[in-house]
C-alpha cells in the first residue's frame, strides 16, 4: 500500500493543495506486533476521518494529499532529522516512542536502522509527492497555497492544556503566509460560531514550517478540536454523528469562499 493518496481536482484546478498527514490508520503487521498495548492499537493521536471531512475539495478545484498509514508508523509532520519545532516543550519525533500522554508506544523502541527504513519507505514518498505537486502549481499559476489540516482531542496532554477554543491556526508567527490568509480563515471560522486561536499553542508543524519557507508557497496549519465534528470518545461513530455533516457543510462554505479569494488574488 502506498503511504499516501493523491486526489486531483475534478473541477477547474486552483493553486491550492490540502495536506492531511495524520488521518491514516494502516499499520503493518510487524509494527503492530511491537505495540505496547491494545490502547496503542486503537491509535490515539489519529486525526480521525479528516480525509472524509474534506472529501468535497476536489470538486472545488483543490488537490488533496492524505496519508494512509498511521502516524505511529512515521510522522509526516516532523522533520526528517531531529530538530526542535517547539524548543523546551515535549515533542514527538519522526517515529514517536511515546504518546502525548507519555504512554510508551512500543515494547521495544525501533532502532536507527528501522527508523531509517521507515523514513525511506513511508516518509519520503509523501514529501516527494507534496513537493512535486507544489512545484507543478507554482509552474502553472506562479504561486501555490498549502493548507495542512489536523484535528486533536480537547483534553490536556504533555503538549497542551485543555483546549478551550475550537480552531487553532498556525503560520509560524506570521512567517509562512501573508497575514490576509490567516485573517480570512480566522474571520471565517469566527462567523460560523467557532472560537479561534492563532499560533498558540500550535504554530504549525514541519510541513507548514518547511514548505512555507519556500519561494512562491504560502502555508498555514489548521488544527481543529475533534469535538467540533465528532464525539471524541467514539471515533468509529464519527461519520454518523450529526456534527460531522454539519461541520462538512460549514467547511464547504469556508473553502468555497477561500477558493474565490485565491482566484481574485486577494492573498498575493
Describe the structure.
- This protein has 268 residues and is α/β, with parallel strands linked by helices.
- It has one domain (4-263): Zn-dependent exopeptidases (Aminopeptidase, 3-Layer(aba) Sandwich), CATH 3.40.630.40.
- It has 7 helices and 7 strands, in the order ββαααβαββαβαβα.
- The longest helix is centred in the middle third of the chain and has 30 residues, at 112-141.
- The N and C termini lie far apart (38 Å).
- 39% of the residues are buried.
- The model has no long low-confidence stretch (mean pLDDT 97).
Low-confidence blocks of residues = none
CATH homologous superfamily designation: Zn-dependent exopeptidases
CATH topology: Aminopeptidase
| Sheet with the most strands, sense and barrel status | 7 strands, mixed
Give helix and strand order, one letter per element, not per position: EEHHHEHEEHEHEH
Mean pLDDT: 97
Main β-sheet, spatial strand arrangement = 1-3-2-4-7-5-6
Radius of gyration (CA) equals: 18 Å
- Give the distance, in angstroms, between the N- and C-terminal Cα atoms: 38 Å
Under CATH at level 1, the class stands as: Alpha Beta
CATH architecture: 3-Layer(aba) Sandwich
What is the overall silhouette? Answer: globular
Strand content range: 5-15%
- Count of β-strands: 7
Helix content: 25-40%
- Domains (count): 1
Structural class: alpha/beta
Amino acid at each position: 500500500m502506498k503511504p499516501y493518496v493523491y486526489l486531483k481536482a475534478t473541477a477547474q484546478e486552483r493553486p491550492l493543495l490540502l495536506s492531511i498527514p495524520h488521518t491514516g490508520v494502516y499499520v503493518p503487521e510487524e509494527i503492530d506486533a511491537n505495540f505496547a498495548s491494545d490502547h496503542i492499537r486503537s491509535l490515539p493521536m489519529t486525526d480521525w476521518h479528516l480525509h472524509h471531512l474534506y472529501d468535497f475539495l476536489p470538486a472545488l478545484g483543490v488537490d488533496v494529499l492524505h496519508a494512509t498509514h498511521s502516524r505511529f508508523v512515521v510522522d509526516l509532520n516532523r522533520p526528517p532529522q531531529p530538530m526542535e519545532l517547539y524548543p523546551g516543550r515535549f515533542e514527538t519525533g519522526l517515529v514517536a516512542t511515546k504518546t502525548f500522554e507519555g504512554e510508551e508506544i512500543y515494547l521495544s523502541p525501533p532502532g536507527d536502522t528501522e527508523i531509517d527504513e521507515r523514513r525511506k519507505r513511508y516518509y519520503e514518498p509523501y514529501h516527494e509527492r507534496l513537493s512535486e505537486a507544489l512545484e507543478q502549481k507554482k509552474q502553472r499559476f506562479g504561486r501555490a497555497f498549502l493548507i495542512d489540516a489536523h484535528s486533536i482531542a480537547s483534553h490536556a496532554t504533555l503538549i497542551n492544556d485543555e483546549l478551550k477554543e475550537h480552531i487553532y491556526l498556525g503560520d509560524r508567527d506570521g512567517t509562512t503566509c501573508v497575514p490576509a490568509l490567516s485573517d480570512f480563515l480566522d474571520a471565517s471560522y469566527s462567523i460560523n460560531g467557532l472560537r479561534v486561536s492563532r499560533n498558540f499553542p500550535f504554530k504549525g508543524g514541519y510541513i507548514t514550517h518547511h514548505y512555507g519557507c519556500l519561494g512562491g508557497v504560502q502555508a498555514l496549519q489548521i488544527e481543529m478540536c475533534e469535538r467540533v465534528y465528532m464525539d471524541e470518545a467514539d471515533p468509529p461513530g464519527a461519520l454518523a454523528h450529526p456534527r460531522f455533516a454539519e461541520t462538512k457543510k460549514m467547511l464547504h462554505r469556508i473553502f468555497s469562499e477561500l477558493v474565490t479569494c485565491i482566484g481574485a488574488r486577494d492573498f498575493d
